[in-house]
Design goal:
Blueprint (H helix, E strand, L loop, with lengths): L1 H19 L3 H28 L26 H25 L3 H28 L17
Helix pairs in contact: 1-2, 1-3, 2-4, 3-4
C-alpha cells in the first residue's frame, strides 16, 4: 500500500520536473520515469483490487506549464530536481526490498521483483545522466583520525 502511494505521489514529482526543466536529457528521463511509474501503479492497483485491498487517495495530475514562466527563486534547478528523483527512486527500491523480505506469497514476490527490476534499471540509467551532468552529491571522504591525509 505504501509503495503504491510512493509511486503515485512520485508521478507528481516527475510532472513538476517536466514543468520546471528545459534540459532535453532530463526531460527524456523524467518522461520515462513518469510512464514507468504509471505502468507500475496500474499493475499494483489491479493486484490490490483483485485481492480486495482498499486503494489510497493520491494527488491529481499536474497541468502542463511553461518552465520559463516559473520564477527562478521558486523552481527547482536541474541538479535539485535530479537529486530529488534519485532519492525517491532509492526509497522505493529500499521499500520493495523490505517488502520482499517479509512476503510469503509467491505471486506478490514475483510482482515486487518485477517492479524492483524496473526501478533498478531506471535508477541505473538516471545515475548515468546525473554523473554525466555532475549532479551527483558525493559526501566528503572520511579519514580516520591520525591517518595520512586527515
Amino acid at each position: 500500500m505504501v509503495l503504491l502511494t510512493m509511486l503515485e505521489e512520485g508521478i507528481s514529482v516527475y510532472q513538476i520536473g517536466l514543468n520546471t526543466t528545459n534540459d532535453d536529457d532530463l526531460i527524456h528521463a523524467l518522461k520515462n520515469g513518469e510512464q514507468s511509474s504509471k505502468a507500475i501503479s496500474n499493475q499494483l492497483r489491479t493486484f490490490f483490487k483483485k485481492e480486495g485491498i482498499p486503494l489510497p487517495d493520491t494527488s491529481e495530475e499536474k497541468p502542463k506549464s511553461d518552465p520559463n514562466s516559473i520564477p527562478l527563486g521558486v523552481k527547482y534547478t536541474d541538479e535539485e530536481l535530479a537529486n530529488l528523483v534519485s532519492v525517491k527512486v532509492a526509497a522505493q527500491i529500499t521499500l520493495i526490498g523490505q517488502a520482499l523480505a517479509m512476503s510469503v506469497r509467491s505471486d506478490s514476490c514475483e510482482l515486487l521483483l518485477q517492479i524492483q527490476y524496473e526501478l533498478l534499471k531506471y535508477g541505473s540509467s538516471f545515475k548515468t545522466l546525473m554523473r554525466r551532468n555532475g549532479w551527483i552529491k558525493v559526501p566528503p571522504y572520511y579519514y580516520t583520525p591520525g591517518a595520512p591525509g586527515s
